[in-house]
Specification:
It comes from Desulfonatronospira thiodismutans ASO3-1. It contains seven helices and ten strands. The protein is an alpha+beta fold and about 250 residues long.
């Protein structure tokens, strides 16, 4: 069975310590002023008297099943891994158009000020490869974030979704079907916005996709020609050597 990584959030235990944000920033060496995750705050309603409380809501890339960022990418640089469900960015294929940044209704992406390509949460790929949890999950003192494969019925994340009520932060008019789940009583606040594709998206998709495919095809053809030349050159050299030995 394919894996489906997801984040389950219990905002009721979030204390706004921002350890998740700090650990993520250090782990990935993010530029000043930019973040891969965040904590939103809802102002207390003091009309509730002694029941007044502050509400903090952790967030980040939702690794959606219907990711608008993938649909908006004209070069195929942004894609969803079939094996894990993680939305990834191939920065070598990225043309830096910024369509995906605009198309994400959760504002989970930013354009790196130096590299000029988009960046976002990738569930700490290097840590996952070593069998570790994402940095934000590992450092949360109250365990407000729970990460795991929800296709694995034995995982903590899957168990929480089975035993508790939860909500997703859905979008209009196109439902992204996000893979960040908020447990009951931690309902979403004033986000996200509506799904909105850049005006140039359709034109860029029509132009860039064919050009990119042509470029890949030409590269493959060039590699094949070079390979054939090397084989031919090797055969000719071998023939010359044999003639020298006969002489």
């Amino acid at each position: 069975m394919k894996k489906k990584f997801a984040m389950v959030v219990d905002s009721s235990v979030c204390i706004d310590c921002k350890a998740c944000m700090a650990s993520c920033k250090v782990e990935h060496g993010l530029p000043r002023g930019y973040w891969r995750n965040w904590i939103k705050e809802k102002s207390p309603d003091f009309s509730m008297g002694k029941n007044t409380y502050a509400h903090y809501q952790p967030g980040g890339c939702m690794h959606c099943d219907n990711p608008t960022c993938v649909h908006a990418c004209p070069s195929g640089a942004t894609y969803k891994e079939e094996e894990t469900g993680i939305v990834q960015i191939n920065k070598d294929m990225c043309i830096g158009c910024g369509n995906c940044v605009v198309a994400c209704p959760y504002s989970a992406r930013y354009r790196h000020p130096t590299l000029r390509v988009p960046d976002k949460c990738d569930y700490c790929q290097d840590r996952l490869a070593m069998g570790l949890q994402p940095a934000c999950v590992d450092t949360c003192p109250t365990k407000a974030r729970v990460f795991g494969d929800i296709n694995d019925s034995e995982s903590e994340a899957a168990t929480l979704l089975k035993d508790r009520e939860w909500v997703q932060i859905n979008t209009e008019p196109e439902d992204t079907d996000p893979n960040m789940y908020y447990l009951a009583d931690t309902e979403p606040m004033d986000w996200p916005g509506e799904v909105e594709y850049p005006a140039a998206h359709a034109t860029m998709t029509r132009l860039v996709n064919p050009l990119f495919k042509v470029a890949v095809g030409l590269s493959a053809l060039g590699a094949a020609v070079m390979f054939i030349k090397q084989i031919t050159s090797g055969s000719e050299t071998s023939g010359h050597d044999e003639k020298k030995e006969e002489a």
